[in-house]
Amino acid sequence: MRVLVVEDEQNLADAIVRGLRRQGMAVDVSYDGTQGHEMAMVTRYDVVVLDRDLPGVHGDDICADLVASGALTRVLMLTASGSVADRVEGLQIGADDYLPKPFAFDELVARVQALGRRATPAAPPVLTIGDLVLDQAKRVATRGGQPLDLTRKEFGLLEELLKARGAVVSSEELLERVWDANADPFTTTVRVTMMTLRKKLGDPALIETVVGAGYRTRTPQ
């Protein structure tokens, strides 16, 4: 899941980013509305965690522009005001959910995960192919009943390929969905991570390379 955090309180923003990354999400961050607006409009995020009172471009305007663009991105709006009127106004602007500060981090994570499921075509919480089982909620994967010791990036690659249900997924798409904005688009990190993932999955192979196009899963014969 790709998430953008736009929050001008840097300590809070960094804490949110660290916490979401620990949940296996690819997270970018902006500390002002001007940059956040540009990032939100250029990159396809599943969820934007958006502070309402931002310097530069106001959070309301970022939210309104996302809605007007027709993007599937879901918006979780944060605000220091917890009044009912304020929440209603935020939702009327187009926010999908609203969370007043201060908040419990576990609740933030749960809300981001719920919105992320709404941002993409529905996929079952447990993905399977052959004897491989991947539980998206519990963040665990097994093959033949044995747990797989996957890194966050390996798990993310496998998750994206399984969600594609046999369709080809390009390296560029995998880089966008699993890594964040700091990833070098010319790096070999996807190929290297795919190599280690394949080794951990073992035989028979579940992932094949489509030359010049990307990768896809295949059901073992």
Automatic annotation (TrEMBL):
InterPro entries: CheY-like_superfamily (IPR011006), OmpR/PhoB-type_DNA-bd (IPR001867), Sig_transdc_resp-reg_C-effctor (IPR016032), Sig_transdc_resp-reg_receiver (IPR001789), WalR-like (IPR039420), WH-like_DNA-bd_sf (IPR036388). Pfam families: Response_reg, Trans_reg_C. The modification 4-aspartylphosphate is found at D51. SUPFAM superfamilies: C-terminal effector domain of the bipartite response regulators, CheY-like. Residues 124-219 bind DNA. GO terms for cellular component: cytosol; protein-DNA complex. Keywords: DNA-binding, Phosphoprotein. Residues 2-116 form the Response regulatory domain. Residues 124-219 form the OmpR/PhoB-type domain. CDD domains: REC_OmpR_CusR-like (cd19935), trans_reg_C (cd00383). GO terms for molecular function: phosphorelay response regulator activity; transcription cis-regulatory region binding. GO terms for biological process: regulation of DNA-templated transcription. PANTHER family: REGULATOR OF RPOS, TRANSCRIPTIONAL REGULATORY PROTEIN CUTR. This is DNA-binding response regulator.
